[in-house]
Design a protein that fits this description.
Elements lengths: L4 E5 L11 H15 L3 E7 L2 H7 L3 E6 L8 E7 L6 E6 L1 H4 L17 H16 L11 E5 L5 H6 L7 E6 L7 E3 L2 H4 L13 E2 L2 E3 H8 L2 E4 L2 H6 L3 H4 L3 H6 L4 E3 L30 H10 L10 E8 L5 H11 L5 E8 L1 H13 L4 E5 L3 H10 L2 E4 L9 H7 L3 E5 L2 H6 L5 H5 L6 E3 L4 H17 L1 H12 L5 H20 L3
Bound molecules: adenosine-5'-diphosphate.
């Protein structure tokens, strides 16, 4: 039997290009599928920085596509650190530019994003139909987020098409464009209906993925439920609801080769669940690095993430006065909206011995925070999966999270019953009121200070949780089977 062929399409993949969790998934899942003996090709745009990192790539074929005058080259390389074959869509006018995949130097969306990602989608669809002379016809195309949302729509009408899976990593990003963009993209006119990619007189890329794929999933079971409600559905909730059992949730795995305190080259003191007391040397290093008073008994609460409303930064700011009544230190790393960056920076200036903030992206500091903090704060308003709370579990840095999306599926609150059953792994609160966040942090700090043995026990439980890709990849294989059945049995 020949191996199942999977074309995996994404607009970012770690370690080549990353703006968020999507890159972590696209950098790990294809390799995990490969180790389950699937034949996987990963497709990415050939961004300038990607080509620079690879130091070139081998030309495979050339495509003539609407939306660009120049021929589009497909280049082949390998995703660094894996044996996954990488296919890059090389269209200089669209992707050969400096900076972020989605934002220009002015921090605004690139004005031609619709055209850029429509071209990416067309290239994917062409390869998916084996129309590029490569003699490789996938059984299934796995698309991710709005940047690949037109692929299932473009494939839908074809008699001999592969099965399609669309994964929603964050429904807040939909690829919405003014209605007149539709004509400029030269898409099949039949797609412009309320059952197609028109969405209240706008062009919606993500709707192409949701409406035309054989199956749709999101990155946690809880978020799959939430996006079917008006509160989290952005008006797409009726469509999502109508999918029934064609919509599901699969938790992201994490790469424990990179996030393992026993073998993390980016932290000064490795440790594990059995020599947990060694963890404190990382705290001392973190305090020194962030210029906070150095003390191994001081509880340290960490935060890493994009500084956007989704992540509940405003809740943290509002809860700070109550939190600072206790002796605790905060270490925060992130970048994002100017006002939130300023809010955190001001808080640090007012409490330099209690709050340390670094604005920016810093992989090394992220590891040191995971290893050095005692608790990790994630008060997200919504969170499709979330990765940092999962890293925190493995580092015994007890997560304090809001009960939403993937946070609800990965962290178990500490209470009498969960302590008795050895299932407690962190601290969970429900409300979006700042007081709820403050109360829960204080509950955690109290446990840390007064019951070190219980704390160690919870950390022990946390460090033994397994959210590896192997488990999630197997669930994706089951989802792929469902998509293939769906395609076969379609009316
Ligand atoms: P999202 O995809 O919404 O940004 P996730 O928790 O799913 O959130 O993934 C975020 C990823 O990006 C994690 O791997 C996290 O460690 C990383 N990250 C986010 N901000 C920073 C930062 N400022 N420095 C280093 N890593 C960061």
């Amino acid at each position: 039997m020949t191996a199942q062929k999977i074309l995996f399409a994404s607009s970012e993949a770690f370690p080549l290009i990353k703006t968020g969790g999507l890159a972590d998934v696209s950098g790990s899942l294809p390799a995990a599928l490969k180790s389950l003996r699937r034949d996987v090709r990963l497709m990415l745009p050939a961004y300038r920085s990607v080509l620079q990192q690879l130091g070139g790539a081998r030309p495979l074929t050339t495509l003539e596509l609407p939306g660009t005058l120049a021929p589009v080259r497909i280049l082949e390389s390998q995703l660094p650190g894996t044996s996954v074959r990488l296919w890059l869509v090389d269209a200089a006018e669209h992707f050969d530019r400096d900076g972020n995949p989605y934002l220009g130097p002015d921090h605004q969306d690139w004005p031609d994003n619709a055209g850029r990602f429509a071209l990416f989608c067309r290239a994917i669809a062409t390869l998916a139909l084996d129309q590029a002379g490569l003699n490789w016809r996938p059984d299934l195309v796995h698309c991710n987020d709005w940047q690949t949302g037109l692929v299932p729509a473009l494939l839908a009408g074809h008699e001999h098409r592969p099965a399609t899976v669309f994964t929603i990593h964050n429904l807040a990003y939909q690829g919405l464009f003014p209605a007149d963009t539709f004509a400029t993209l030269q898409l099949p006119p039949a797609l412009w209906t309320m059952h197609g990619i028109e969405f209240y007189n706008q062009l919606s890329f993500i709707k192409g993925g949701i409406a035309f794929s054989d199956v749709v999933n999101t990155v946690s079971p809880q978020y799959a439920l939430e996006i079917c409600t008006p509160e989290f559905g952005y008006g797409l909730d009726p469509l999502l609801q109508s999918l029934g059992d064609r919509l599901s949730g699969i938790l992201n795995g994490v790469d424990y080769a990179q996030w393992n305190p026993a073998r993390d080259p980016l932290i000064p003191q490795p440790y594990n669940a059995y020599n947990f007391e060694q963890k404190k040397f990382n705290k001392l290093a973190l305090q020194r690095r962030m210029r906070l008073p150095v003390s191994d008994t001081m509880p340290v609460i960490g935060f890493i993430g994009r500084l956007v409303e989704q992540k509940g930064i405003d809740l943290i700011l509002a809860a700070l006065p109550a939190l600072l009544k206790e002796d605790v230190q905060f270490v925060m790393l992130g970048s994002g909206h100017g006002l939130l960056e300023q809010g955190l920076t001001h808080a640090m200036e007012h409490h330099p011995d209690r709050i340390a903030v670094q604005i920016g992206y810093d992989e090394e500091l992220a590891h040191l925070i995971e290893a050095g903090a005692d608790m990790f704060l994630m008060p997200s308003r919504f969170e499709p999966c979330g990765l940092n709370q999962i890293y925190s579990l493995r580092y015994g840095t007890l997560p304090i999270v809001r009960h939403t999306g993937g946070l609800a599926n990965t962290v178990t609150d500490t209470g009498e019953a969960t302590l008795a059953s050895n299932t407690a792994t962190g601290f969970v609160f429900h409300s979006t009121r700042p007081q709820a966040l403050a109360d829960t942090c204080l509950r955690a700090v109290e446990l840390y200070r007064t019951q070190p043995k219980v704390w160690r026990k919870v950390a022990f439980n946390a460090m033994h949780q397994d959210f590896s890709w192997r488990r999630s990849a197997r669930l994706y294989l089951t989802l792929y089977q469902q998509a293939e059945r769906q395609l076969k049995n379609r009316p």
